[in-house]
Amino acid sequence: MEKIPVWIDCDTGVDDAVAIMLAHALEELSVVGLSATCGNQTLERTFRNTSRICRLIGADYRVFPGAEKPLLRPLENASMFHGQNGLGDVDFPLPDPYVPEKTPAWDAILASAQAYPGQLRLVATGPLTNAATALTLHPELAGLLHSILLMGGAAAGGNVTPAAEFNIHADPEAAQIVFTSGVPIVMCGLDVTMQAELRPADLDSFAALGNRCGHAVHDILQCSWRALRSFGLTGVAQHDSCPVMYLAHPELFTGQEAGVFVETQGALTLGKTVTDLWSDKKFDRKTALVLLTVDRERFVSILREQIAKLP
Ligand code: RIB
Ligand code: CA
């Protein structure tokens, strides 16, 4: 079976960390590179966190630095859910020696797309600043990428405002560039990612695996769980694992093609992914496959099975 080449652009972040572990473990995928963007935390933290997770899983992936701030707006981080260090305030060592890459993410993504013409899947699990910058600086990239699978947005609802989800709200201008790029998009919005939650018993079952990655999943998600529980939620949504899981197990999901565009001007609706899924009036074109449901039990079971394979 030919592996699917994948580039992960992330703002590591606790659920980004789980998504990287999952992508590394899934035999259907081949992670060809990673890049970090500001988002959940500053770029310095997300960049180093991504390398910390690579060391945790025993992978020597190259990790490239991206945006220190959104295209036009100041950065608003998500430390309430990801902790001050971005990994739930759990300490993980950096690779030793730690030799950070210097090539900017947008140039590295282009080089990788040129190495895998028409085949590279760009998985974006943070704000879309790096993807938008790459598509703008290198117009040829749109014709080289197979697709962009992004965690972001929502056909209904939001988690930063009633209208907007964090990754899109953090850089709506970047998101609009991506949604209008013409690259085939799979949108994993809150509609589906909130269903992909790990409940307390699930979290305990990862610790019970006994390996360091199982314990890591349990430990880094405790910070989020404490915050989410106080809001009355029943578990910790694995937002960022959804695009990764979809690549290897699309059968777990349902979705619908739709026109999706991003509000960049609204006062109440800034960062909303406006879709024509349920409206009589349709946009003039479909721009994304919007995922709407996931089989949670099978999602959790496969995630646990994959994490069990790691160190
Ligand atoms: O809204 C959820 C998204 O925001 C996830 O990617 C999480 O990591 C945060 O970045
Ligand atoms: Ca993220």
Could you write a compact summary of the structure shown?
The protein contains 14 helices and 12 strands. With 311 residues, the chain is an alpha/beta fold.
Report on this model:
This protein has one domain (4-308): Inosine-uridine Nucleoside N-ribohydrolase, Chain A (Alpha-Beta Complex), CATH 3.90.245.10. Helix content is 38%, strand content 17%. It has 14 helices and twelve strands. It has helices at residues 14-25, 43-57, 79-82, 105-115, 129-137, 141-144, 166-170, 172-179, 190-193, 200-207, 212-220, 222-230, 241-248, 296-307; strands at residues 4-10, 29-36, 63-65, 121-124, 147-151, 185-188, 197-198, 236-237, 253-258, 260-262, 273-275, 288-294. The strands form three sheets. An eight-stranded mixed beta sheet has the order 3-2-1-4-5-6-12-9, sandwiched between helices. Strands 7-8 form a two-stranded antiparallel ribbon. A two-stranded antiparallel ribbon has the order 10-11. The longest helix has 15 residues, at 43-57. It is globular and about 50 Å long. Bound molecules: alpha-D-ribofuranose and calcium ion.
